[in-house]
Specification:
mainly alpha; Arc Repressor Mutant, subunit A; 2 domains; three-stranded antiparallel β-sheet
C-alpha cells in the first residue's frame, strides 16, 4: 500500500486528470462547504426573488450574501433571470444528483453505523448484509 506522502491524485477514480477540472471541483466543494453559500444555493432551487431584504431574511450581511451569490454565479451553479436567481442546469445536477442524495445518506447514517457493527460481528453473510444495506439506502422495508 502506498504511503500518504506518495499518493498520486491522478490515479484516483475522478473522471478527469486535468488540473483545471480538479481546481473547479475544489472551488465548488469549497464554496458549498460554507453554510451561507449552501443556504443561498438551496434557496435558489425553486427560484429566489432578488429583493433588498433577502440577505437579512436569511440572517446574512449584505457583504456575505452578495459575495456568496457572486461566487455561485461565477461557478455556474446559479443564474439571474428577470430578477430571480435560480439553479442553472449544472446547479440542478449538483443539487439533485449530489446534495439531495448526500442529505438522504446522512439521514440514514445511524443505520449505516449499525450495519458496520453487524459486519464486524461476522454473524451474517455478505448477501444478508447487502440486502439490509440496500433496504436502508432505499428507505424500504
Amino acid at each position: 500500500m502506498e504511503s500518504k506522502d506518495n499518493y498520486n491524485f491522478y490515479d484516483s477514480k475522478l473522471p478527469t486528470k486535468s488540473d483545471e477540472h480538479i481546481q473547479k471541483i475544489i472551488d465548488l466543494l469549497s464554496l458549498i462547504s460554507k453554510p451561507d453559500a449552501l443556504k443561498i444555493f438551496i434557496a435558489t432551487r425553486d427560484g429566489m426573488k432578488s429583493q433588498t431584504s433577502t440577505h437579512s431574511e436569511m440572517g446574512l450581511s449584505k457583504k456575505q450574501y452578495y459575495s456568496r451569490l457572486r461566487h455561485l454565479v461565477k461557478l455556474g451553479l446559479v443564474t439571474k433571470d428577470q430578477n430571480v436567481y435560480r439553479h442553472t442546469m449544472f446547479g440542478r445536477i449538483i443539487y439533485n444528483d449530489h446534495l439531495s442524495k448526500l442529505g438522504a445518506e446522512i439521514t440514514h447514517s445511524k443505520y449505516m453505523e449499525m450495519i458496520d457493527e453487524i459486519q464486524r460481528s461476522s454473524r451474517f453473510s455478505k448477501a444478508e448484509i447487502d440486502l439490509i444495506s440496500s433496504k436502508v439506502r432505499s428507505g424500504g422495508d
